Amino acid sequence: MHTIQRFTILVLTLISAVCNVSAHPVSLHHTKKAHDALSANLDSKSSLDAREVAQIPLGGQGSKSNSTGATTAIHTLKDLYAGNEKFRQNVRLQAAKVIDEKPSFMFLGCADNRMSPAAIFNAPAGSIMSHNNIGNQYSSRDSSADAAISYAIESGHVQHIIVLGHYGCKAIEMAITRDSIKASRQIKSWIKPIANLYARTRRREIVILRDSRMPRRGLPNGIKAAPPPTDAGYRALVEENVKASVRALHQNDILKNAYSKKGKDSIDVFVHGLVYDESTGDVHDLRVSFGPPGKMIPLIPFQALPAAKNFHRDSSKSGINKGKTWDFGSH
Question: GO terms for molecular function, please (predicted)?
Answer without folding.
Answer: carbonate dehydratase activity; zinc ion binding
